[in-house]
Amino acid sequence: MFGVEKPGQKKSSSRDRNPPRGQQKETCVFHKFRDYVAAKAFILLTSVVLGSVVGIGYSVITLDRDNHLASVRHDLEQGLYAATDQIQLRFFEAVLVAKHIESILMVSKDVNENQIARVVEDLRSHNPGVLAVALAPGLEVTHSFPTTGSRKTLGLKYWQVPEQMASIAQAYRRQSPVVDGPVPLVQGGTGYILRYPVFLSDPDLSTKSFWGVISIVVSADGLLSAQRHDFSDTETYRFSLREIPTTGLSAPNWQGNPELFDNKPVITEFTMLGSTWQAAALLKDGWPSYSPQSPYLLGFVLFLGSVLLGVLWLIRNLAAKNENARALLAEAIGCIDEGFIAFDDRERLMLVNQKYLEYHPEIAPLIAPGVTMTELLTRWETLNPDATATNEGQTWIAERLERFRNPGESFLQAASDARWLKVTEAKTPHGYTVGISTDVTSEKRAKEAAEAADREKTEFLNNVSHELRTPLTVISGRAAFLRNSEKLPQARRISIAMESNATPDNETAAAVDAYQHFVSQQSGGIVDSAQHMLRLVEDLLDWTKVARGQLHLDLSIVPVAEIAQSVVTDLRPDAEAKGLELALSIEGTASVSADRIRLKQILYNLISNAIKFTDSGRIHVSITQKTDQIVFSVADTGCGISQENQKRVFQRFQQVDGSMSRQNGGLGLGLAIAEQLAALHGGTLSLESTLGKGSVFRLSLLRKETARAA
After folding, report:
1. CA distance linking residue 166 with residue 97, whole number of Å
2. pLDDT tens, 559-571?
3. Model pTM score
4. Residue 353 dihedral angles phi and psi, to the nearest 5°
5. Where do the domains of the chain lie?
6. Under a CB-based contact definition with an 8 Å cutoff, are residues 251 and 258 in contact?
7. What sign for the dihedral angle of Cα 412, 415, 419, 424?
8. CATH of domain 552-709
9. What's the CATH architecture for 68-283?
């Protein structure tokens, strides 16, 4: 996770790396307790949601019922107001008619039937509820308007009818109109009778005397009817009308049952005929317990409750599936034999497995969900100040965070117990960061061992090469003297001695010449073998320098024509010795930035290799110029190389054909060294070959101008 080797780190024991059984048991108990709490929390949440839905539904239904009840009461109250206004209006008109008749009587002293009949007719024309108007001077009915249907009342003596005499007596005492009813009517049905007492002036006594009573009969039908309500309809309404007494005497109840006033009806008060009245109305079945919309609201509440239950059940299932998936993921991550850690898009820890904690025991207590990467790095840097001694702590944290936020290639890091980890980090499409730590300690140690062995081998080859080069140089030098044995001082003395002999022995001279020729011939073979061995040793020395990074170039501007001509001239005898044609073609004049000696070495290797593996035909060396490169090409008509073996020729100690290698000799380092030298020059060495037809090696180097610009 951190990518810094921690020297002198304390090793963690197996007890630190593996959680004890007690801790595992506690973890299991904790998971069971968490599941139990989650189940109870879901039940509690479901209960709360259902209780809320029921409460809200009950409140809505109650509010709707209250609104509906208020609307019904308001409508009934408006109807009651209209009905009481109509009662007041009708009896007010009746009083006005009675006063008019009283004024007629006061003027004429007698009953003017025609005039009174017109007044009554006018009253009944716009108030059809008035059935009759009766005149009872001296409390005996003498006139009734209209006469049709009312003749039975004529001659009625009120003092003989106690039921009617009570209201007349009340009107007399009050000297004001009184309404009596409801009473059975002669005209049929029930109605109300307005008793209007008439007092006429007596000129002799200068006082008013009681004349009699004017009775106006009003039908009960329509009296209690409003525009939308007919309170006389007992199938729909319960109605009660009563007078509020102004004295201690009880006032009669006009209409309905007086107990209605105790059942929370709609009540209105009004003034009529000098008295205060109360009217009460109530629906026959009482006030409604619910509104017409209540069933729909109840259905909607039940539907909403069902939907919420379904949603909660679905959420519970999804949560259970997510929890199962998370548990499966956590178990799967915990089972892998690699460290795993995951952070969200805010760099907060989400998941980590036990293997990762084993890799980092020093900060394991801090590695918990929710901790940020910055906190982990800061904590680790605090615990390991020596690990970042080569870099300041804040700088190291910033660099590590940059690598964490922009993951790239895998990197190695040192962990506890001298363990090496290969850390691979990646970003998910949602911005999460996951890291996998793989224990590569064995691979790291194997690599280190291989590198150490390679270094030892390189040192061995370097030492051997140095030790071999000195005696080989001596052997080559001494053999070179013997190669021209006739020129040695000893050979000259023998020649002088034989010439000084007067009688030279021709056979002896021939034997001496043959011996000298044999020595020269054998010495030539020794020289060639020694030179070959020196070239092999030089190849080994060059390769060890390349492998150890100790080969350095002495770059300068080199004319390519001069270098190529020199190498071709040196190797042409070797080509002609095998009967091969070695040709050189140069396109123009150009220079490259190169090490003169190493450039010659590359060309020597390429041309020598072509001569070695070509039995007949020709070898053509060409130099062509491109925009920014000079290309050296060495084409031969040799055996060629198959496609699958073309990469092997540039590997060290590799040759395509082992038998050919034994036939021609060599260690298989020439092309490998040539490729490395080309790379050191900033160039490339490539191959094109066809099996059985030959090969073309191309060396591409930068031109002088391009090299200077670079």
Report:
1. 23
2. 888 888 888 888 8
3. 0.44
4. -105, 170
5. 68-283, 446-535, 552-709
6. no
7. negative
8. 3.30.565.10
9. 2-Layer Sandwich (3.30)
